[in-house]
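Researcher: I'd like a structural prediction for the single chain below. Treat it as a standalone chain; there are no partners to consider.
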Amino acid sequence: MASPRQRGRASPHINTREPIIQEPQAPEPDASEPEATRRTAGVTESSRANRGWWDRNADEYQVDHGTFLGDDRFVWGPEGLDEVEAELLGPPDELKGQDVLEIGAGAAQCARWLAAQGARPVALDLSHRQLQHALRIGGSFPLVCADAGALPFADGSFDLACSAYGALPFVADPVLVLKEVRRVLRPGGRFVFSVTHPIRWAFPDEPGPEGLSVASSYFDRTPYVEQDEEGNAVYVEHHRTIGDRVRDVVAGGFRLVDLVEPEWPAWNTSEWGGWSPLRGNLIPGTAIFVCERD
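Model: Treating it as a single chain, here is the predicted structure.
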């Protein structure tokens, strides 16, 4: 799972693991913090910015969140909803022999779990550095570095597709991605994807009480952009309302068969950016869309 950056502040460094992928690192040049703003950002700019951001931040992300995600666990979001319990892709014993595409795979934890059930997964991510972590952990399934808006697969290549916080929050044209996923799915195929719950856009990205007061309009679709001194985007996140997401699913050629809003479980006492027990018990943090193609 590749969870989005918290809008407006740097990701906390939890240090749940030792540093990983040891390589010589050149001294980093002095650089000012990127400017956070709201402005338009198209398909190409969003893709370029987010590829660069995830390549630069993959190491820290895996150190911070690798223990929570595990090496071969399928988690749909910071709440900790596990596919072994949710069965949103279907009963685990029915996954054997299924061709499954994971989009925005990160270190391919979900694909690794799918492989353990006897499925034949392919893990795809925009970030080369994230996929290096997938190689580090290991697995016998293919890893593909590509954009979700231009999937390098033939029509009807997969039985199932999934994306846990991958691709959809970061793309300027989600319908393009949905149409691509539909294209590579076989008739009757299912696509399940999770994103930050759209209501969170209206609240500050803070885990404490300050994150419980509405700070902006839920209906403002202007992308959140972090940009460098020259105005070049270095990170982009796109907002869609619940209604937008439903319309996108339909425009992409899918039927929406379920919309899951995981409740915060009592066992989960951890914070992940703006996700926390305090907020999770009051407002939803994740939305999971279960879609099928005819």
